[in-house]
């Protein structure tokens, strides 16, 4: 696997952050909704922001394609229907000439994507998983 210098720096900073936490330096502790304490180096948000800025095309990920048509109005209608029935998920209409694809979700793992696929299959029986570059701020972090 080929790692960029930036990725190696990110990994080193995370390892250093874990090390400095053991010594009680430069870290924030927060508790999430499940009662798990998350300890994060104060510098990580800046590093993540720099990563997002240098990777505007996004990261490799997965979505569920729920519809495909040559008519934009139909694609927008399906998008609206999806948003009403499955709120909280990213859904977009992608123009791939001469057709429009309606894509839902923004995941890094196949397991997360399969959960959405199973959820929407009854309403959208022709749905299937597709790969896509996903902007980091779009990623869905549900389990």
Structural overview:
- The chain has 143 residues and is α+β, with helices and mostly antiparallel strands.
- The protein has two domains: 5-54, no CATH class; 59-138, Sporulation related repeat (Alpha-Beta Plaits, 2-Layer Sandwich), CATH 3.30.70.1070.
- It is 38% helix and 30% strand.
- It is built from four helices and six strands.
- Strands 4-5-3-6 form a four-stranded antiparallel beta sheet, with helices on one face. The protein has a two-stranded antiparallel ribbon with strand order 1-2.
- Strand 4 and strand 5 form a beta hairpin.
- The model is unreliable at 19-24 (pLDDT under 50).
Question: Would you list the SSEs in sequence order as H and E?
Answer: HEEHEHEEHE
How many whole angstroms does the radius of gyration measure? Answer: 19 Å
The helix/strand class is alpha+beta
Shape: globular
Query: Gap between N and C termini, in Å?
Result: 26 Å
Order of strands across the widest beta sheet?
4-5-3-6
**Whole-number total of structural domains:** 2
Can you tell me the CATH class of the largest domain? Answer: Alpha Beta
Q: Looking at the chains present, what oligomeric state does this protein adopt?
A: single chain
DSSP strand (E) fraction?
25-35%
The CATH superfamily title of the largest domain: Sporulation related repeat
Number of helices: 4
Helix content: 25-40%
CATH architecture of the largest domain: 2-Layer Sandwich
Q: Could you give a quick summary of the protein structure above?
A:
The protein is built from four helices and six strands. With 143 residues, the protein is of the alpha+beta class. The strands form two sheets. The chain has a four-stranded antiparallel beta sheet with strand order 4-5-3-6, with helices on one face. Strands 1-2 form a two-stranded antiparallel sheet.
């Amino acid at each position: 696997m080929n790692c960029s210098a930036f990725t190696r720096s990110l990994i080193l900073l995370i390892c250093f952050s874990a090390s400095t936490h053991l010594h009680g330096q430069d870290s924030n502790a927060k508790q999430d909704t499940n009662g798990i304490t998350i300890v994060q180096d104060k510098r990580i948000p800046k590093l993540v922001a720099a990563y997002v800025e240098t990777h505007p095309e996004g990261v490799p990920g997965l979505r569920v394609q729920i519809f495909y048509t040559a008519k934009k109005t139909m694609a927008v209608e399906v998008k609206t229907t999806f948003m009403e029935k499955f709120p909280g998920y990213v859904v977009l209409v992608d123009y791939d000439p001469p057709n429009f694809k309606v894509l839902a979700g923004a995941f890094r793992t196949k397991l997360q994507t399969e959960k959405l696929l199973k959820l929407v299959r009854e309403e959208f029986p022709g749905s299937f998983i597709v790969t896509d570059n996903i902007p980091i701020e779009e990623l869905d972090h549900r389990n």
